[in-house]
Every structure is written in C-alpha cells, then in structure tokens.
Amino acid sequence: MKTISCDDAMMIDMHEPYRVSDEYRDEISTRQRIKGAIKYPELFDPDSHTDEELSDHAMMEFHDGQEYVAGMRTRMRQLRGIIMEKDAEIAELKLLLKSYMKGEAKT
C-alpha cells in the first residue's frame, strides 16, 4: 500500500474537483441541519431512536438518493445527446463556411 506524505495529502485536498466537492458537501450539510432544526423539535440524537428506526431511516434516505442519481443520469444523457447534435450542426456549418469562403458554396 502506498504511503501518502503530509505534503501529498495537502495537495490532494487542494485538487480543484475535491475542493469544490468538499465546499458543496459542507453547504448541503449546513442547509440540511438547519432544515432538520426547523422541522423537528430536537436536534438529532441517535440515543432518541431505536436501532431499527435509525437503520430504516438511513435506508429510506439511501433509496431517495438512488432515485435522484438515476434522475441525474437520465438528464445528463439527454443533455449529452443535445450537445452531440449541436456539435454535429457546428461541424456542418464549419464545412459550409469553408466551402463558401473558397467560393464553392451553392446558393
């Protein structure tokens, strides 16, 4: 197993996609905690719930997360299709422009 130095760990933490992910996760965590504080009479305390209640709630949250991930995947595929169509249109327009610039375009 590879050993990571403190300098390597700091560089990893500064990696842009990881930094953005951490900031986003922190933002969502804060919003979720505020939402929970408004919604429930007391802050989360695992001792206030049975093991079954905790595991059931977590499983329901995981299920909801999977639904959102599936929805994001569908939307990304749709958007990727649109991007590919637009890329093809741009390539065709570039060919037409190149042909026009050479005086070969048909009017």
Quick overview:
Helices cover 79% and strands 0% of the residues. With 107 residues, it is mainly alpha-helical.
Description:
The protein has 107 residues and is an all-alpha fold. The chain has helices at 6-14, 16-39, 51-101. It has 3 helices and no strands.
CA-based gyration radius:
25 Å
Oligomer: single chain
Helix content: over 70%
Tally of alpha and pi helices: 3
Low-pLDDT stretches are none
- Strand residues, percent: under 5%
The biggest sheet amounts to: none
Structural class: mainly alpha
The shape is: elongated
Distance between the termini: 66 Å
Average predicted confidence as pLDDT = 93
Protein traits:
single chain, 107 residues, mainly alpha, 2 domains, 3 helices, elongated
What is the fold's blueprint, element by element?
Layout: H1 6-14, H2 16-39, H3 51-101
